[in-house]
Amino acid sequence: MATIPIGPIHPVLKEPLRIKLVLDGERPVDAEIEMGYVHRGIEKIMEGKHCHKGIYLAERVCGICSYVHTMTFAECIEHISKIEIPDKAKYLRVVTCELERIHSHLIASAVYNLSIEHETLAMWLLNVREIIMDLMEMITGNRVNMGYNVIGGVRRDINREMMNEIYKKLDIFEEELKNIIEVFETGPLIALRSKGIGILPYHEVMRTRAVGPVCRGSGLPESDWRLRHSTYQELKFKPVWREEGDNFARMMVRHEEVIESVRLIRKALELYEECSGDIRVKAEIKGGKGEWRNEAPRGEVTYRMEITDGGIIKRIMIRTPTVMNLEAYKYMLKTCPTVADAISAYTSIDPCVSCTERCIVAIKDGKEIPININLKF
Amino acid sequence: MASSLWYLYEFARKKWIKRFIDAKSDKSSYIPPERYRKIPPIVKFPEKCISCEACKESCPAFAVEMVYSEEYNKNLPVFDEGSCIACANCVEVCPTGVLEMDKHRIETEGLFFDKPKYHNLIIDEEVCVRCGNCERACPINVIERKEGKYVINMALCISCKECVKACPIENAIIIFDEKTLKEKIDKAFEIKNKKTIGKLEIKENAIEEIPHIVNGLCISCGICKDVCVGEIDLKEKKVVKCVKCGLCIELCPTTAIRIYKPIISKRKDICYVIDEDLCIGCRICYKVCGAGAIKISKETKLPYIVPELCVRGGACARECPVEAIKIVKPEEAEEAVKVRIIEDKIIESIEADLILYTEKYGKVKEEIEKLSLKKLKEELKKRVYEENKRIKEMKRELYDKGNNS
Ligand code: SF4
Ligand code: SF4
Hints:
The complex is a heterodimer.
Chain A: E1 2-6, E2 18-24, E3 27-34, H1 42-46, H2 51-59, H3 66-80, H4 87-115, H5 119-140, E4 149-150, E5 153-154, H6 160-186, H7 188-194, H8 202-208, H9 212-216, H10 230-234, H11 247-274, E6 288-296, E7 299-307, E8 313-319, H12 322-332, H13 339-348, H14 353-356, E9 361-364, E10 367-370
Antiparallel strand pairs in A: 1-2, 2-3, 4-5, 6-7, 7-8, 9-10
Helix pairs in contact in A: 2-3, 3-4, 4-5, 4-11, 4-13, 5-6, 6-11, 8-12
Chain B: H1 2-11, H2 14-21, E1 42-43, H3 54-58, E2 64-69, E3 74-79, H4 89-93, E4 99-100, H5 104-107, E5 119-123, H6 133-137, E6 143-146, E7 149-152, H7 162-166, E8 173-177, H8 178-196, E9 212-213, H9 223-227, E10 231-233, E11 238-241, H10 247-251, E12 257-258, E13 271-274, H11 284-288, E14 294-296, E15 303-305, H12 315-319, E16 325-328, H13 330-404
The complex binds iron/sulfur cluster (SF4) (2 copies).
């Protein structure tokens, strides 16, 4: 048996992480995953800060799905102090959140296509993603870290012109994307590299607690936390899922979710037009403990926090989806015939390492040891 | 072979060929964005800035620095372009509308916000003497008098600390910042860990009394509850069970849990004195003084100020309708009221003596009455007995006479 190291810096692993693949001939049989290259201790920095400042730190937990972190952070505090946010803000949050999901899924898909050496599709995907990025910039003012959410609502309103622009661009986007999905779906080479590879069967999902598209690719639609979100319930959200559980199914779940997101944005904008009033309320923050979950592009994120009267964060715990999905990766390896497939299976779970690595501190003999460094999965 | 055939088939589709033929370059899909492009924010009306540093304290990226400007003769914010993250927090907190980031202020005008800040201020209701200096000093009017006490609206306060400067008493306005709070949270976490694994050593009876919680100061951060070996009810703000270890007092970030706090005046160089010739005896000053420094003279029935108790808040001087209260040196004030104090003391002691006497007199009188009553009863009994005896004798005499005759 031989082991080959992959990473920490590897052209197709988006973020630094080391995988030690254990090989039997050319077949990978096991993997050891090492994290800790981007450890930042964000939870610790947040302690003692006012939550209006904490929200910007939450935004920096992850670079790609930054918006959903601020949304969960804000909603957690709104849940704790029972703040009712205006309807306009609710729909605007959905719009931005879905735009972000689209862009995140497109990146994931592009990276997957790169990992199976289909560069054309990757370029096309990144190209259509630009339309979404423009929309995000138009609505929020920024492209990646948007700073759009505040506790009690959102920061800026949109107007008629912007709405027309969004509708127009979404039409263009949808047409182009449908084409790309068609290519992905019908391409024989893509099918060769994706179908039946990296299978995560239904019962192993339960064992690994995988979340997000990884889970829905294996036939578990109820894993989508948007089903339990009141605004999404108003929009009559229906989750997308597939039964096969292989790389192809996971990518197709992402693609179909993008289409669903476009539908959700249109619906949210329609409902937005019907409401009036402010986009933001004054947040009177009361102390307490609470927990809130949302569906990030990669799966559920959980924020658990304790705040004081006036909104100072006493303790915060963030759980992001990638750790559980990385655990599922080991099960996927069983159906990967080559090392190259192991890498494409890895990219198909769309890992986001920087949002996974934060602070867990254990005290041993009076010394503090951050335990998620060198933590073996 | 198969795949190249597939590609041929793919590119020969009608739709694609059509698109290929009518391909023309679109107008740029990129609309030049207007929003959030002007970072860092600009100081639009520097003459209106009150140098309160709210922008500096609200900035999560520490991008604002207050720098003295020769031209405007005050501190003005200067922004570090590289650090600014375009969150527009500073624009939102600025109480005078000095800053602007693109059109953010104009677009959000009329909305009111919570202010993120580094320093938080709370008025200590136990130490405060209700002089109202802070209320008048606040540049944005967020200090209010509610149910007899002054409260800072934490959500709107910009922590410019003007109220702290104006407050005559030391430590009456509590300031706690992120750093101390963080340190205390860390320490509390450590103690909590030790407590759960049973390695916490506690010194019992380290303090004399069971501490109490001051309602207005408590931010319900729960640190005291985390470290407490006994029991603290934070909803009722009460210490239920206490071993007097003093951990909570040490760790509370706002000193809300405490035993006793003395009132110490900041100013020692002046004192107030009442001019008796001008005073009309309305006693408004007496009612207004929260420190209890004004006494009513027993002789003239006019108020006077005791210098040791006076906290130099100046509420009395402000409220006096005839401006009879003057600012003088403390020695002068002591001199001026010396006679009154001595007089008062003498009268007080005489009064006390008198009261004592009357009490004593009353008691003696009562005793005498009781005693006399007792004596009277005895006398009566004796008399009745003697009378009975006499009647009996008389009866016998009569009887004897009757027998003889
Ligand atoms: S916009 Fe935000 S980051 Fe920039 S200076 Fe103002 S508070 Fe600081
Ligand atoms: S918040 Fe406004 S008024 Fe206060 S220092 Fe900053 S610019 Fe000046």
